[in-house]
What we know:
It is built from eight helices and 20 strands. The chain has about 325 residues and is an alpha+beta fold. The longest helix has 16 residues, at about 190-205.
Amino acid sequence: AVKAAGKTYSAHKFILATGSSPFIPPVPGLEKGTYITFKEAVDFKKLPESLLISGGGPVGCEFAQIFQSFGTKVTLVNRSEKLLGKEDTETAELIKALFENQGINVLTNTAMTSVQKKGRKKIVRLKTGEKVSFKEFDEILIATGKVSVLDFAPEKAGIEVEKGRINVNNLLQTNVPHIYAAGDIVGPYLFTHTGYYQSYMAANNAFSNKKMKPDYSVVPRCVFTTPEVASVGIGENEAIEKGIKIKKGIMAISILGRANTSNEFDGFVKVIADKNGVLIGGSIVAARAGEMIHELALAIKCNVKASDLADMIHAYPTYSEGIKIACSLVE
C-alpha cells in the first residue's frame, strides 16, 4: 500500500517512477536563498546582471548560453578540465572555444569552495589549483547533476536500494516481485527518452506474459546548445579505455552547402568504426545535430558499415551530407 496526502492506496502492481532532483554540493554558505537550479532559472522576471553557473554538463552549458544571449554576464565553473565530460575531446574543446568567443567566462579545473551573502549579492570563493579568488555575482545556478528521489521510504516495502538507485533486474522488476521501477531512480541514464522507454517496458512486464528487456546499446545523447551537440554509441575516448581498435572519419560542417546557405559554420561530424569498418559510435556538433544523430543510431543498431553510408545518396543541400562525407573518410 502507498500513503499519499493522508490517503492509502492499494494495488496488485506498482511502478515506481519518482524521478530525480538537482544535486546540491555541500559547499559552506550554499543553502536555500543563495542559489537557484534549472527549475527556477526559467522564472526570472528580471534577468540577473551577473550569474555564476556551477557545473559544465549539459544543463550548465545550455543555461550558460541562454543567459549570455539575453545579456547576463555569465561565468561557468567546472571541476574538471572538460566541459560535457562524457563527450569526445573535440566536442568539449569546440564548445569551450565557442563559449569563450561568445563572452562566457569559462573556468575549468575550478571548484566553488564557499558562498557568502552580501545584501542581494553573493560572494563566491573559487579555487583553481592552489589559486584562490573571490568573485561577486547577482545569482548562482547549481547544475552539478541529479540524485534519485527516494524520500518515499522504499525500504519500508523491503525494496533494495544501492548507491542511491533502486535495484531492478533485466525486466525492471525490484526484489519485491509486484513492484517495478523506471526512469532516473533506476538509471543507468538520466534522460527523458530513456525514462519513457523504461516506463513502457515496466508497464508491459507488470501486466503481460510477453516480457521485454531494455537494450541500452544505442542511446542517443543531445545537448541543446547553439550549435547542438549529439552523440551515440562508443566515443573515441571510451574505445581507447576499453582497448578497442577503431577507425574514424571526421569532417568540418563548414564545407557543406547547407551550412553556407544557413550561415551555420561551426561544428563537425565524427564517426567511429571498428577494425572491420562497422559503425560503433559518432559525435556531431551542428545546427541540427539532434536530428542527424538518429541516422548513425540506426546504422549502429543494424551493424552497418561506414562504407554503406558513404555510398548512399544523401540529399543536397542538407546537414546530413556531413555523415556521408565523414563515413567516406573513415580510415
